[in-house]
UniProtKB/TrEMBL annotation:
Transmembrane segments: none
Domain IrrE N-terminal-like, residue spans: 195-297
Protein name: IrrE N-terminal-like domain-containing protein
Pfam families: Peptidase_M78
């Protein structure tokens, strides 16, 4: 008989709750689940492994005497209060923890290499003029006026310049390399972890490219303000916004970086209806149609009645397009190195590689930080360094 492992019922109960499951739903796969949740039980390693995978809870957690304190600070900085997403998914929690680990490594590496804290982190306040701050940030990024006009490479240009500034930019649509653990855009679009040495912006890669452009700019403003954020705006009108003054300011600065009033005025086609104009401006400046629509309302180019009508239609289209994008990605599979390379910040990857070669970190740590082992790690580093 296989040797068992004693697990406390409170741990099983916590694991089930954390995974968003219930005992009834698990009973088909685990016929002893009622017993495990009601009394101290002896589980085989095989049973424990199976339960760990099903609940997506780390195997080692089941050996704890009491549930771990998973106080994720970032969750206190949600943009929107959303009852449907009140309890964070394991996917979100694990992603935040992984990014915190990467950020911690990079901070130590920069300090070891003699780098100084960034002066721009926390250098702004919401009392600043949004237009002035937008100008200051774009200048710091070495971006020219109308830098995103007729530029299909807007996202990559913006990401590269942000990375060059010393801010890590990561993205993924799943947890690590596990394609079964999908990151839900309805739960979050992006987040930013503030650090004086190495701020980190993470983007949900399941979002549209134009939406990611705005998320990048929005989170960049948070870096200048020195305030963490979990950005979960779903662009509906009935949302309860946390710290609405802060978020309104960040949105204004981000919109100003991408779509200043002068650009709107020079691109509007009077002979076209507003709906068509929004589509046109979105395409020219590589900004999401919803952002364009909001911008037209804020600049009083359209009134509330027109805004509400057009915005509702655009919101439906956005959701349909996102669904289509995700289905297409699922079918295509994609190139391993292109996909995984895009998930990494190039500066981060080259630093991990260099520290491993110098013997400053073990290769096992480098493999974990990059998310690949052996030859795959070597080839992925080469791919990213070639992109850098």
């Amino acid at each position: 008989m296989a040797k068992g492992v004693i697990v406390k019922p409170i741990i099983i109960q916590w694991a089930i709750q954390s995974a968003g499951k219930d005992v009834r739903g698990l009973s088909d796969k685990f016929d002893k689940i009622d017993k495990w949740t009601s009394e101290e039980s002896e589980l085989t390693v095989s049973e424990l492994n199976k339960l760990s995978k099903e609940l997506r809870i780390p195997f080692g957690y089941f050996f704890l005497p009491e549930p771990p304190d998973e106080d994720i600070k970032l969750l206190k900085y949600r943009t929107i209060d959303n009852e449907d997403q009140e309890k964070p998914s394991r996917e979100l929690i694990d992603t935040i923890k992984y990014m915190e680990k990467r950020q911690s490594f990079m901070r130590d590496a920069l300090i070891e290499d003699g780098f100084l804290p960034h002066e721009f982190v926390g250098s702004a306040t919401i009392e600043d003029n949004p237009e002035d701050l937008a100008s200051k940030i774009t200048q710091e990024l070495k971006l020219k006026i109308n830098w995103n006009k007729n530029n299909p490479n807007t996202f990559n240009v913006l990401r590269e310049e942000i990375s060059n500034l010393g801010i890590l930019v990561m993205q993924n649509g799943v947890v690590g390399n596990n394609n079964h653990r999908i990151l839900n855009v309805a739960e979050f679009r992006a987040f930013v972890l503030i650090d004086q040495y190495v701020p980190l912006i993470f983007l949900n890669a399941r979002d549209s490219t134009n939406a990611k452009v705005f998320s990048l700019c929005h989170e960049l403003v948070h870096v200048w303000l020195g305030v963490d954020e979990l950005y979960n705006d779903n662009f509906t009108s009935n949302q309860i916004v946390n710290n609405s003054q802060l978020e309104k300011f960040c949105n204004e600065v981000a919109a100003e970086m991408l779509l200043p009033l002068s650009s709107i005025q020079s691109t509007l086609e009077p002979q076209l209806d507003i709906y068509t104009n929004i589509k046109h401006i979105s395409k020219v400046f590589n900004v999401s149609e919803l952002v364009v629509c909001i911008r037209l309302k804020e600049k009083k180019i359209i009134d509330n009645k027109v805004f509400n009508e057009v915005y509702a239609n655009l919101l439906i289209e956005m959701r349909e397009n996102l669904l289509g994008k995700q289905l297409q990605e699922k079918k295509s599979g994609g190139d391993y190195y292109a996909t995984n390379g895009s998930r990494l910040d190039a500066r981060f990857a080259t630093t991990v590689s260099r520290k491993a070669r110098e013997g400053r970190i073990l290769y096992t740590e480098a493999y974990e930080l990059i998310g690949a082992k052996g030859k795959t790690y070597d080839n992925l580093i080469k791919y990213v360094e070639g992109r850098a």
